[in-house]
Amino acid sequence: MRKFISCLAVSFAFVALLMLAACGNKQAEEDSSQFVTLTDAVPDAILEIRYFGTYNFVGARIDGYLEPTALLTKAAADSLRAVSDDIARLGYRLKIYDAYRPQCAVDHFVRWAEELPDTLMKPYFYPDLDKSVLFDREYICAKSGHTRGSTVDLTLFDMTTEKELDMGGTFDWFGPESHPDFCGNPETFEYTGDGSMSPADRTITEEQFFNRMILREAMMRHGFKPFDTEWWHFTLKDEPFPDTYFTFPVRQLAD
Hints:
This protein is an alpha+beta fold. Helices cover 31% and strands 16% of the residues. The chain has a domain at 34-174 and 206-236: Muramoyl-pentapeptide Carboxypeptidase, domain 2, CATH 3.30.1380.10. The protein has six helices and ten strands. The N and C termini lie far apart (58 Å).
């Protein structure tokens, strides 16, 4: 009998520990104390938060975007400030499309992808694809690096022309034309002009490829790693929360 009670006590203790751990994880997911408002760290950054508006592949404001602002972990923001200072010497500013993305926003993407008849924005973001392949090709996933808080989607803004630098493609274009190795070798910066990966025989010019490389080189120089299917997407190599997917919404953080 004592042995049974002892085993029962151990079982209850184990369950309690699991529940405590789950509560701890939940608290961590909701904790924004290690995040900053991106423009506080990088005052020169221009914001065009696509998921707060309707010009995005869904065609609606995305869940969790309560204000048109951008958040990053302190570590990622510090590194991005170094990038901003670096490219300013070349006459550019950073333009931000997205940074931290709460899990409810990712869930919104998943629900949208499951609604196959909803193709409102297909002509603008995935004209060459049937919506049914978005999961298989990992354009939509149940988890996103953005939710860990140290990933940013961005481009360069040319201070001379007062326009975005021409990258030969739009943010969130679903297709090989968005790959960093499209029409060139990102390791050597060699332009090849090879558009054979494009289902519509598209290409980008040498200047457009080189512009992508300016952004890529600056980000990598300051501790960010590129993504192999999106020229605009970078994650801090030493991200402080590699296993935490945060849930708090995107809005201005309190001082």
